[in-house]
Amino acid sequence: MDFKYEIAKLIAQSCGLDIEEIVDTIEIPKADMGDYAFPCFRLAKVFRKAPPLIAAEIAEKLGTSEYVERFEVVGGYINFFVNKTSLTGGIIDDILKKGGDYVKTDIGKGKTVCIDYSSPNIAKPFHIGHLRSTVIGNSLYRIYNAMGYKSFGINHLGDWGTQFGKLISAYKRWGNKEEIEEKGISELTRLYVKFHTEAEIDPSLNDEARGYLVKMQEGDEEALSLWKWFVDISMKEFNRVYDMLDIKFDAYTGESFYNEMMPAVVEEIKSKGILKESEGAQVVDLEEYKMPPCLILRSDGGTLYPTRDITAALYRKKTYDFAKCLYVTAIDQKLHFAQWFKVLELMGYDWAADELVHIPFGLVNLGAEGKLSTRSGHVVLMEDVLREAVEKTEKIIEEKNPDLENKKEIAAQVGIGAVIFDDMFNSRIKNIAFDWNKILNFEGETGPYVQYTHARACSIMRKAGLEGAPENVDYSLITDKSSLALVKALGDFPAKLIEAGEKYEPFIISRQLIEICQSFNRFYRDNSILGSEGEVRKARLALVYAAKTAIKEGLYLLGIKAPERM
Q1: In this structure, are 204 and 129 located in the same domain?
Q2: Same domain, yes or no, for 62 and 125?
Q3: Which among 229, 256, 379, 563 is placed 20 to 30 Å from 183, CA to CA?
Q4: Are residues 408 and 519 in the same domain?
Q5: Which of 513, 502, 544, 331 is nearest to 417 (CA)?
Q6: Are residues 226 and 123 both part of a single domain?
Q7: How far apart are CA 137 and CA 153, in angstroms?
């Protein structure tokens, strides 16, 4: 039951406003002030009266509805108290019938959203700095699918460029095939770091590296064979981390995929008359838009990141006809995206202004670990962080529930889930302070707390002997304050999903999960569930089942597992 819509119909009948406009205006007031509130302040100019007077006049003309118990005028607001049985029955019944799908919408039906995320560099460590792009992008992928869109996840791998010339040079000088096969990316990183150390002493090494890149570009068999080997070695390690995170992509089209397409795009930019020479390089002047020039070609004719990104966007629009293409990268790339988005607009592609969206995020603050740098070899590996999270969780389980079955599997679900949840508990633009004590706290506003609440609800259902949802429930028996607060939290979830998608903010889902879990635990504290009898017991178990279902769906949207035992 859409109570906002029912209330909007009542209001529309008394004042002649548009129903959809009223729905968008209706708010959720503070506890005890009602279930929904209609503010009349913006009507002051229309009706030329004070908001409290407008509220009183509309209230006088309001009709009756089986879904509205009563209403009150408070200042410039009309507060509505809905029929509790209708509210409870409408929300719980919807969840019992649809399961986790009750959250979903068809807003995006028939539309595609491309999401460019994770995108590590080949032959470099998959470090903790990649965490945010990877998990935020994965959550947005799931959120947009739930909104009815077809999500298409793209891992735009950094698999081309000067670093490969450097790596080939380093391998041919100091490398060993067996060691690379055995140690993987760690050995490639050692060679990369060694190259930079040696190049500081002998700068001619940089010329040698550029020469190998030219060979790659010209199709040299040996150079390309080494490059392909580095890619295969890297992907093996990347996929191990993606498996731990339960993340998959629809395409791994990295920078090299667009190599043959770029010359035509450069020619197109030239043909539009916006490409200019600047100190030997080819640029698009963006001074009019208060931005530095966007470099398209280096002075030696080599392509740059903007060239590749413009080419990739044109390919994706042609191939997928996306309604939006999202780029999930750190905030320090904000200017880069603004520049090449503007170049596409100047090329005549109007869709670039509305359909290309940079999704920036803040940094991970590791405290004493300091800033990450592959050149110096100082990195914190993502795999090490995830494994440590699992190990720490195993120790907690050993202390609290040593007889738990499948301890290792559950420790992985909880430990990795804790890292993901912590990343998405605040707005993505905020920096994260990485703190194990906070991340793995089972009692705070954390992933383990949400998972434990889900496991508690599952335990109640098991003890009640119910595998599925109760049937023929008398919702009029759910009347106490804590039960109704839980029902409302469950009912708010579908709107929060849409808000999370429209704002590109998974933290809205994580905060709603905390609200549901806190409401559930208050309901659990205030009501005897298994100790109650008859129809009351059945009604309370229906609410437990609904909460369990919603929590599991919310965790899925964040990319987190929902253990049934903890």
Answers
A1: yes
A2: no
A3: 256
A4: yes
A5: 513
A6: yes
A7: 8
Specify the pLDDT at position 444: 87
Predicted confidence at residue 378, as pLDDT, reads: 57
- Cα–Cα nearest to 65, from 16, 111, 6: 6
| Residue 283, SS3 per DSSP | strand
> Which two three-digit tokens encode residue 102?
């009750």
**Per residue in 26-74, pLDDT tens?**
998 887 899 899 999 989 988 899 999 999 999 999 988 888 999 999 9
Same domain, 145 and 224: yes
**Is 386 a residue whose pLDDT tops 90?**
yes
Q: Based on the fold, state whether residues 234 and 116 are members of the same structural domain.
A: yes
Query: How large is the average pLDDT for residues 407-436?
Result: 94
Contact 359, 330 (CB under 8 A): no
**pLDDT tens track for 522-557:** 999 999 999 999 999 999 999 999 999 999 999 999
In this prediction, residue 302 has a pLDDT band, given cuts at 50, 70 and 90, of: confident
421 closest CA partner among 131, 141, 102, 144 = 131
- What is the domain extent for residue 347? 112-259+305-369
- How far apart, in whole angstroms, are the C-alpha atoms of residue 228 and residue 234? 10
Say if residue 140 is in the same domain as residue 220.
yes
- Please name which of 220, 52, 242 lies closest in space to residue 141, comparing C-alpha atoms: 242
The amino acid at 483: S
State which amino acid sits at residue 402.
P
Percentage of the chain with pLDDT > 70? 98
Looking at the domain assignment, is residue 47 inside a domain?
yes
CATH number of 398's domain: 1.10.730.10
Q: Which of 282, 121, 301 is nearest to 213 (CA)?
A: 301
Rounded Cα–Cα distance for residues 95 and 545 (Å): 9
Final residue of a domain: which of 369, 401, 421? 369
Q: What is the pLDDT of residue 371?
A: 44
* Percent of the chain whose pLDDT exceeds 90: 83
Q: Which of 120, 194, 173, 92 is nearest to 381 (CA)?
A: 120
Which residue is catalytic, options 4, 127, 215, 552?
127
To the query of whether residue 124 is one of the catalytic residues in this protein, the response is: yes
Question: What is the identity of the amino acid at 311?
Answer: T
Q: Which of 124, 342, 488, 552 is labelled catalytic? A: 124
Question: What pLDDT, on the 0 to 100 scale, is given for residue 367?
Answer: 59
Of the candidate ranges 110-119, 210-219, 405-414, the one whose mean pLDDT is the lowest: 210-219
Q: Confidence class of residue 361 from pLDDT cuts 50, 70 and 90?
A: very high
Domain-embedded: residue 87: no
| Number of independent structural domains in the chain | 3
Is residue 267, in this structure, part of any structural domain at all? Answer: no
What are the tokens at 540? 């309370």
Final residue in a domain of this structure, among 369, 392, 417: 369
Catalytic residue among 4, 130, 156, 358: 130
For residue 469 the two structure tokens come to 């949802």
Provide the mean pLDDT of the chain.
Answer: 93
Q: Examine residue 283 and state whether it is found in any structural domain, yes or no.
A: no
Helices (H), 347-446: 351-355, 382-400, 407-423, 436-439
User: How far is residue 468's CA from residue 461's CA, in Å, rounded to a whole number?
Assistant: 9
